[in-house]
Design brief:
Layout (H helix, E strand, L loop, with lengths): L1 H19 L4 H27 L5 H24 L6 H21 L15 H8 L1 H31 L5 H29 L1 H14 L1
Helix pairs in contact: 1-2, 1-3, 2-6, 3-4, 4-7, 5-6, 5-7, 6-7
């Protein structure tokens, strides 16, 4: 219950962040810190769930849904203000819809995204999707990307506020490279879910065909 509440609070805070970002230097600083807090809460809700034995199938799915909402909001926001290409959220959101569809279908069969009852069956798929190393690297890259992009907004507002002259072209290029690395890993980690989840998709298609 507590872990799920933390996830819900994270989602609400994310809406406040995108509503207040890019207004002035001081609000940008405050929202930059808030983004870090939102990210830390993602780690904290998992810790709470394990400590108080609140882990459940619903909790696992709700945590993924919360992560997906937070990530997609940030990707769409940074694309809307021109910091990243619109293709970034298009790819990430499309990949998320497809993998979440398969995970939901697997969930109806008693399987979970991670853990002992994971839907991942292939050894290589488990390494790419479920291993602590893969999840940690991917999470770290997303954290770095969101914080870096928010940091660019802080720097841009500092230019207006204090008249500084940082190398924005170089800083922007670094941000673009970081974002594209995240997108590539997003696609790579999505493929094993599609591969191991293809049987659930085929079952669903066959059920639909039989209904017709």
């Amino acid at each position: 219950m507590i872990a799920n509440l933390i996830t819900l609070i994270r989602i609400i805070m994310t809406f406040f962040v995108v509503g207040l970002l890019n207004r002035n230097f001081y609000l940008n600083i405050a929202m930059f810190v808030t983004i870090i807090v939102i990210i830390m809460m993602d780690w904290f809700d998992g810790l709470i769930a394990r400590k108080y034995e609140e882990t459940s199938k619903f909790g696992a799915l709700f945590d993924i849904a919360g992560d997906r909402i937070v990530e997609n909001i940030f990707w769409m926001y940074f694309a809307a203000i021109g910091l990243i290409s619109v293709w970034v959220p298009i790819i990430v959101v499309s990949r998320g819809f497809l993998t979440d569809l398969l995970r939901t279908m697997a969930f109806s069969k008693g399987k979970t995204p991670f853990g002992e009852k994971t839907m991942m069956e292939s050894g290589w798929a488990k390494v790419l999707v479920s291993s602590h190393a893969s999840r940690g690297i991917y999470a770290g890259l997303k954290v770095a990307a969101f914080c870096y992009l928010a940091g660019l907004l802080v720097i841009k507002s500092a230019i207006t506020e204090f008249g500084i002259s940082p190398p924005m072209n170089l800083l922007t290029l670094i941000g673009q490279i970081l974002v594209y690395v995240v997108v590539v890993m997003c696609v790579i980690r999505g493929f094993p879910v599609i591969w191991d989840g293809r049987k659930y998709l085929l079952e669903g298609l066959n059920e639909k065909s039989s209904d017709i």
